[in-house]
Amino acid sequence: MDLCHVPATREKGWYLALMAPNVKGPNYAWLDPSRLYCHPQGLQDCVADLLQPFQGDPIDMVAGIDAMGFILGAATATVLQKGFLAIRKAGHLCVQTVSQPYTDYSGREKVMEVRTDAISPGLRVLLVDQWVETGGTMRAAIQLVERLGGVVAGVAAICIEDSEGGRWIREHYKCAHCVPPRLQPRFNHHQ
Q1: Which residues, listed in sequence order, are joined to residue 131 by a DSSP beta bridge?
Q2: How do the residues of the chain divide into helix, strand and coil, expressed in percent and rounded to 5?
Q3: pLDDT at 189 over 80
Q4: Which class in CATH covers the domain with range 14-188?
């Protein structure tokens, strides 16, 4: 798809066609959304779709998850005119942090951390990531926010897969994603 082309009718998720399939093998994600971020209207519509369920909700800050969640999180924070907090993989922050171990979508054990001075008790945080596959990474981010006394105002991602972890997140938190219901089975099974 042409990176300048904008369809005459823009239904929710039209920009998903901008994503490119994996051509490098099993060590990479099955789909690459970074091309979507290069399309000005695609990125704007993606952020608008992510924010639609939260219209009128009190949100004090947006937090993006390392690393691709930084793109959507920063764009979302800008639209909301709120601050942006980076939730990082361990070892990247030179300030006081709190950390949380987790298992990522590939089954690898990792540690995530956040600065301790950014979240005060009662602060309402919208968590944003590029993709929620197994839910392990997002659950670790949720635990960090809540351990510091923050309130998870919601979870937003291009796709929240219908995995055990994805279902748990949808059952416990207000969520937004960009995949229309008719396409969700294809995204769950990586087609």
Answers
A1: 159
A2: 35, 25, 40
A3: no
A4: alpha beta
